[in-house]
Amino acid sequence: MGVEDSGGQRRRTAVDELNMRSIFEENDVICAEVRGFQYDGLHLQARSQKYGKLERGQLLTVPPYLVKRRKQHFHHVEQYGVDLILGCNGFIWVGEHVEAKDDMVEDQVSKSEQLNIKSNKNSVSLEEQERTYAPIETRQNICRIANAVRVLSILGFNITIEVILETMNLSSSLNLDIHEMLGSEFCVLVAEGEAERRSLTKKKG
Fold this sequence. Notes:
Layout: E1 3-5, E2 8-10, H1 14-20, E3 29-31, E4 33-38, E5 41-45, E6 52-54, E7 57-61, E8 74-77, E9 82-86, E10 91-96, H2 103-107, H3 111-119, H4 126-131, H5 136-155, H6 161-173, H7 184-204
Antiparallel strand pairs: 1-2, 3-6, 4-5, 7-10, 8-9, 9-10
């Protein structure tokens, strides 16, 4: 990953790699743009606060051809308190909504404070850990949206924000438990709804 400083973009150094470990660890899920390929791997960049480490959510993988390129791939589903990222590479993130932090405030956090936060991560009390969890309602919404994505992937339908929410709302209107969305009966209902939508589209055309 390239490093941004006051002078603009510069090549990553060994010191930068060490400093990155105060922010990221192996197996962390991050969101970034692929700027290009280099001899030592991918060149990633995070140009704004919408990029970075992803937490409190689910990472799903679907066939990449199901996610079409659109102007907007980052979605804040406000009524459910959820962020949805539809990656053209087939990676889909469903997680608790995170407000973008101000760059100036972010810059005031020193490296030593970041290291201190990391070193104290395992010493926080159970109550403090519980306060960092997403509310139960938000977690249920994340799981319902994630299962809507799984159903669409199973059926081989194009995955868009509109179709995901339609599938989620259908499950809610039928009072289905979240796990019941993955049953064959619900998949049939979603397929029938899609067939009806396509039929109406052809008639209008």
